[in-house]
Design a protein that fits this description.
It is built from two helices and 16 strands. It is mostly beta strands and 279 residues long. A six-stranded antiparallel β-barrel has the order 1-2-3-7-6-5.
Length: 279
Amino acid sequence: MNKPLLAALAALVISGAGAAPAVAATPDTEAAPAIQAVDFAGTVALSNCSGSVVRMPDSADDDPALVLSNGHCLESGFPAAGEVVVDQASTRSFGLLNSAGTRVATLRANKIAYATMTDTDVAVYQLTRTYAQIRGSYGIEALTLNDTRPAAGSAISVVSGYWKRIYNCSIDGFAHRLKEGDWTWKDSVRYTSACDTIGGTSGSPVVDQSTGRVVAVNNTGNEDGGRCTVNNPCEVDAAGNVTVRQGINYAQQTYQLAACFGIDNKLDLYASGCALPKP
């Protein structure tokens, strides 16, 4: 997992992650899709991870706002394999960033709407404020989740509110299964090598540069070349063949969330099209 540990701090020194944020790449040819300006507006810093204020495609301005991060970033620790957390009280705080990466407010949750590390690695917190209240107070819009599966080759930005750093790369492909320790995730996004994310980037939104929408949530990478161990996930194909890609990082797709949150941003795991794991 990309959590901030002592090793992450060492990596920060080596990689220069404290330097100025990377800028979205300029397309090399006129045929390339238009690049949206990707910045920090709407991202948040957690105590141990990154995240973002997000809305579903059909969310209303007066709905309670949601924060997206990883299941392994929960204040209570890693959920066990097979565990699903639903509607659990929380008063967790989040540092809201503006486009320049400056913290402009502290937002607070009233519950964990949904969290798991089974099939995916996701946490969705419900806040005490609505989207309209956040916009009215700070002029910051929530990021919108895309409701369709991203495509290989898409240009993406991984935006870390914890480190205030933006990584730019492309979706290299998808792992049928990604196994790390006791946990297994389905249809994970694999980055090209330019997204060399480190501890603390867990929970960062993965933004499609052509649409500005969130298509995944950053969660892990193979640090040491280990095989299917914690901090060293491996890919497992449909035939059971295992591939280890040292130095390559991954995210979990988020389009599945849109079918599971309805009117007033209420979670309904039995809604039509909702395939998230259930308690």
